[in-house]
Amino acid sequence: MPEAALHLGSGKVRELYALDDQRLLLVASDRISTFDVVLPTEIPHKGRVLTGLSAFWFARTRELCRNHLLAVRPDGRSTECRRLQMLPIECVVRGYLAGSGWKDYTSTGSVCGHALPAELAESAELPEPLFTPATKATTGHDENIDAAAAAELVGEERFHEVERVSLALYAFASAYAAERGILIADTKFEFGVDTDGSLVLADEAFTPDSSRFWPADEYEPGRPQPSFDKQYVRDYCESLGWDKVAPGPELPAEVVAGTRRRYVDAFERLTGLAFDDYHADPELVLR
To answer: Is the Cβ–Cβ distance between 112 and 132 less than 8 Å?
Structure first.
């Protein structure tokens, strides 16, 4: 870490540093959180997967939306990024009925104000992708909100812009991933605004932490799906009867190894690169 870098804060996964007035340094750790609790066991190389995949997508979606990435550092887990004024909402796109969207649907027949057809099955593909914003919680869980509540937070014009851009990003990445055997069931974005007022994609993009990745060849509506993301860890924690309050449980070696394998598999399928090659030369994902 450069001596001049000022530590600004710690997230569930990332450490944030200021390099100067215009640049930040984001360092992705190997920490893993589930149910908003950081677990005591790390997943080896998880941070590099998140950094590499985000950089890969940032390089390929510039025409759809500007992003904050300036450089990927040689350690493969650190990125230099532009400073932004972040918007106070999570921008979630759902292509399939899963997670909190499924829970909302079973109780109300809708998801974040979007009325849906009756009798959809769990994990069903939605008639069209939905933009379902959420609040950003500094502690505890993000909460799904409807379009009107999100527009109150960011303004009507900006809300329609982030909705349009989020849906375009999802359409591009989900088509790309499907060709490589992965269904992106849902994903979330964070956006900021730069000094000239332009919308900028920030944080991470289409990673196993920010997205629900399903193997296409095992997809079957009507049940939960196997996944490449941290659902494997969530399922293990659920099996313990843990009350989802810190401290979280230690993960056994087989869960650590299985989770690492899923993250690396997703990286390799989506990028077409061997993970070891990325580790040796992180800039490969930008080409």
So the answer is: yes
Q: What is the pLDDT of residue 230?
A: 84
pLDDT category, 137, cuts 50, 70, 90?
A: low
In the chain, the largest separation of any two C-alpha atoms, in whole Å, equals 58
Q: 26 is written with which tokens?
A: 């984001």
Which residue intervals of 42-178 are DSSP H helices?
46-60, 99-108, 147-154, 156-178
Do the beta carbons of residue 98 and residue 234 sit within 8 Å?
no
Q: Which of the 8 DSSP states describes residue 209?
A: T
> Which two three-digit tokens encode residue 246?
């810190």
Checking if the pLDDT of 7 tops 90, the result is yes
Taking only the tens place, the pLDDT of each residue in 158-171 is 999 999 999 999 99
8 Å CB contact between 21 and 10: no
- Residues 6 or more apart whose Cβ sits within 8 Å of residue 246: 37, 38
Above pLDDT 70, what percent of the chain?
A: 97
How crowded is the C-beta side of 158, counted as CA atoms within 13 Å?
20
Residue 210 contacts residue 188 (beta carbons within 8 Å): yes
C-alpha 230: how far from chain center = 11
